[in-house]
Prior knowledge:
Blueprint: H1 3-16, E1 22-26, H2 30-37, H3 40-45, E2 48-53, E3 64-73, H4 77-88, E4 92-99, H5 105-114, E5 120-125, E6 131-134, E7 137-139, H6 159-177, E8 182-185, H7 190-206, E9 221-224, H8 241-249, E10 255-257, E11 270-272, H9 279-284, H10 289-311, H11 316-352, H12 355-368, H13 371-391
Parallel strand pairs: 1-2, 1-3, 3-4, 4-5, 8-9
Antiparallel strand pairs: 6-7, 10-11
Helix pairs in contact: 4-5, 6-7, 10-11, 12-13
Amino acid sequence: xxxxxxxxxxxxxxxxxxxxxxxxxxxxxxxxxxxxxxxxxxxxxxxxxxxxxxxxxxxxxxxxxxxxxxxxxxxxxxxxxxxxxxxxxxxxxxxxxxxxxxxxxxxxxxxxxxxxxxxxxxxxxxxxxxxxxxxxxxxxxxxxxxxxxxxxxxxxxxxxxxxxxxxxxxxxxxxxxxxxxxxxxxxxxxxxxxxxxxxxxxxxxxxxxxxxxxxxxxxxxxxxxxxxxxxxxxxxxxxxxxxxxxxxxxxxxxxxxxxxxxxxxxxxxxxxxxxxxxxxxxxxxxxxxxxxxxxxxxxxxxxxxxxxxxxxxxxxxxxxxxxxxxxxxxxxxxxxxxxxxxxxxxxxxxxxxxxxxxxxxxxxxxxxxxxxxxxxxxxxxxxxxxxxxxxx
Length: 392
């Protein structure tokens, strides 16, 4: 499952086949999809000189007929309405419409009716309705989704909207991978059953032709399980690099916000943690915290050696070599600073929150079982600490 490659392939096809200067218009969901899969410099290379949100671009009335508008949106009723309004008085020379999931026939007809000036050049479905955070993991960026795992008797008003979004995301994954899976779900979970049944209905009945891919020797398996079936893991502190950054500081769309941890240079207040763009992170994202410190020390030592070699510039040839390597040197400097800052901040948090001691207690509770033994063990440790303080 090379999810990032699938998303990047869709974005490449969107942009490279349309020559000339372009404006890329996204919605609140697709902006995350594109920002994780594509960098700003890569967008510039594809002649994208402006990126706007679909619900705010109408605020400007200035005509830009020299630009070609490339829309990449989720096929929601709100986005279709935005498009209808913008097609009624077009500002751009051409309109190329791409949707991240399956369009309804009525939506296509609505867009065709609104295109009175015939500025729309194409309408296509590019199935990238998920945020690919690395080659094997994705998210749908649905906050507070734990609410929808409550029993069926507690039915939030927008639970159908939640279920539809999950089904859409799963469908786009398998359309991007060109697979139709066998679907299994956790029997005692209402929400797992609901999602599995609606996904099966979409893939095997409503859009069976769209999912009619060549069969493989071993069919892929979609397993829908309820997070509540594992109550232990969420209660344990994580000790691998990526998990610790996410839990202690926070990662959103592969970006880490460091503005609140102290005075940092402006270019380091928000950093990118991507296994596709950062070789050190890719090699260490699943390493234990203790090993990370040693690996970062080696990274710093390597950078210091390169810095020393750059200081011995004495000839024109030396200067030319340094200039050629300068972008790589700057990138390495930023990478070293980023990881040193992250590990320093996490070490501080571990110390302040006494997470080593807390984690030890968590492991005892999770692995040994029996609350009485855990209370006795914790009480003995507390009593021993009091004795130590008295002796001091």
